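#structure-requests
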Amino acid sequence: MSGRFSSSRCTASTTLTGLWCTPRAYRIRGFRFFRSVMMPTISPYPVTGARVSAVLALLLTIGSEMVTSAPGLGRAIFDAQTNNDLAGMYALIVVAGVLGLAVNSVFFFIERKALAWHPSQRPVIS
């Protein structure tokens, strides 16, 4: 009698288990399973990770330029601060913010184009 209900494991399951059970019911295996089930499931995560890590890399670069005195935007901000040039310092901080916003916008545009088919990229209709 317990064998009769063995398929109920897939019918009353969580979404993650359903990710495996539904393709199994349609006999989708191997590369086709990877291409049509796994890639659409995991693809938003690396793209979002790249967008976030690009902005973090920019922040860390500017911060390390301040600490190590390497030439760059961070060094220019640090020099403006040590020379008591507050207007120049704040102008450079605004430039760093605009640069971060530009990097984030470029990656967001790439994410929207690469994942246009994904539900997270569709406009919300209220």
